[in-house]
Design goal:
Length: 434
């Protein structure tokens, strides 16, 4: 009998297994495919490696090789850490058969606890014709790196815009068809407006408020836009319309904890309705992000080790790795207003930022949302080169509940993008004093 059986070797499952094993528990980790999960093998890492290297006329086989080198180096590192921590890695699909039992590799495994970290898979929207040859998911597109004559993307969420950016950077024709009124609708309005402008400048055709009716052979995508029916042919159609929890086939009949729309329901300690079974990451809902799964995995491991969790769970920053990058954490001004929270904002436009000018950077900004009465930072939105790094300072401030005055205490080095934080805070303080 193991102390813990972890199902899923993505960022969440690996983080939980390592923390639990280092804390003294005996742990087996089941992974049907490759260690590292979607993030490392088919998601964040290959996408960012691609975005880093792609250019017009680039050598695609060399790019694919370099991406594979990065992925396999990181995977070997992760496997080495698991081995060093004495986690038993079982390369097999696991099925939960009871509160303490799992079947995998033709064997029955017993554990005091089971932690589900099964992640998510691309969700295909109910559009007729998505099985037409030439229609692919992000998994398939990334597994076959090559230029495309015309990449038409259904869905302008984070996956849609990042992959659009990659193929645009290679000089390919790209079209995005998004059902909602704006791209990346879960991000701050100004961030998504700025991104849409950059995509169009780079040559993308963007249709928002556009409902896809069907995909015809070709493939040809037929959609309604501003009352008219349009049809566009492409050599590749990418279906990037969201992901769903990978909970199908995870349980034998009668062994599943309570679920809602395929997501596992959990309490504040990540326990499911079956007390010996915990669940974390994409499969429990909320933001489907590697760093959220990792944080939840560490938190759940500390719960099982019986110690106060060291890992915080909020805020979860969101980043988009386009050029410029976008990043946000906490509340946007729209979200705060919708909740009736009185706010002021402080903004710095990066046009006069020395580092931006030195690096020939594109337009960008840092926008901070403060509580109007207390001056506490409630949210931050950043659009600039390396915004995904800059957001961490602001996420720290958010997690500590720092005020505008406290954010002015550190002296930020010159010339850096971070100086824009100082200026946005100063603008916020001015607004607070009015
Ligand atoms: P998403 O939910 O972010 O976006 C899907 C988009 O497709 C939505 O805007 C939706 O309105 C649109 N859509 C749905 N059905 C449609 C239809 N029939 N016609 C046109 N548009 C339609 O999902 P996405 O982009 O697939 O990403 C999945 C998850 O992976 C997200 O949770 C995302 O946060 C995560 N991810 C994060 C990344 C990052 O942090 N940089 C990178 C890639 C993915």
């Amino acid at each position: 009998m193991y102390d813990l059986l972890v199902i899923g070797g993505g960022p969440g499952g690996c983080a939980a297994a390592l923390r639990a094993a280092r804390g003294g528990l005996s742990v087996a980790l089941f992974e049907a495919r490759e260690v590292g999960g979607t993030c490392l093998n088919r998601g964040c890492v290959p996408t960012k490696a691609l975005l880093h290297g792609v250019r017009p006329g680039c050598d695609w086989p060399a790019l694919a090789q370099e991406t594979e080198r990065v992925v396999s180096t990181l995977r070997a590192g992760q496997e080495g850490q698991l081995r060093a921590a004495k986690v038993e890695l079982v390369p097999a699909r696991a099925v939960v058969t009871g509160p303490h039992t799992v079947e995998a590799g033709g064997k029955r495994w017993e554990g005091e606890h089971i932690l589900l970290a099964a992640g998510s898979v691309p969700a295909l929207p109910p559009i007729p014709g998505l099985d037409t040859p030439g229609v692919v998911t992000s998994d398939q597109l990334l597994a076959d790196l090559r230029p495309r004559d015309h990449l038409l993307i259904i869905g302008g969420g984070v996956i849609g815009v990042e992959l659009a950016w990659a193929w645009l950077s290679a000089g390919c024709r790209v079209t995005i068809v998004e059902a909602l009124e704006r791209l990346t609708a879960n991000l701050d309005r100004e961030l998504s407006q700025g991104l849409t402008m950059e995509l169009k400048k780079a040559g993308a055709a963007v249709y928002t408020g556009a409902s896809v009716l069907r995909v015809e052979p070709g493939p040809r995508v037929v959609f309604t836009h501003k009352g008219a029916e349009l049809g566009l042919s492409a050599d590749t159609v990418l279906a990037a319309a969201g992901r769903r929890p990978a909970t199908e086939g995870l349980f034998s009949p009668g062994a599943a904890p309570e679920m809602e729309r395929g997501f596992l329901k959990v309490d504040g300690s990540f326990r499911t309705s079956v007390p010996s079974i915990l669940a974390i990451g994409d499969a429990v809902g909320g933001a489907m992000l590697a760093h959220k799964a990792e944080a939840e995995g560490k938190f759940a491991a500390d719960v099982l080790l019986g110690r106060p969790p060291a890992q915080g769970l909020a805020p979860i920053p969101s980043c988009v790795y386009t050029d410029p990058e976008l990043a946000q954490a906490g509340l946007t001004a729209d979200e705060a207003k919708a909740r009736g929270i009185p706010i002021v904002t402080g903004k710095c436009v990066l046009g006069g930022n020395a580092r931006t000018l030195i690096q020939g950077g594109k337009r960008g900004f840092v926008k901070l949302v403060f509580h109007k009465e207390t001056g506490v930072l409630l949210g931050a939105q950043v659009c600039c080169y390396r915004a995904s790094d800059l957001i961490s300072e602001l996420a720290l401030a958010l997690s500590l509940g720092l005020t505008a005055e406290q954010l002015l205490r550190p002296v930020r080095p010159h010339p850096t993008f971070a100086e824009a934080i100082t200026q946005a805070v100063e603008a916020g303080l001015e607004a607070l004093e009015k």
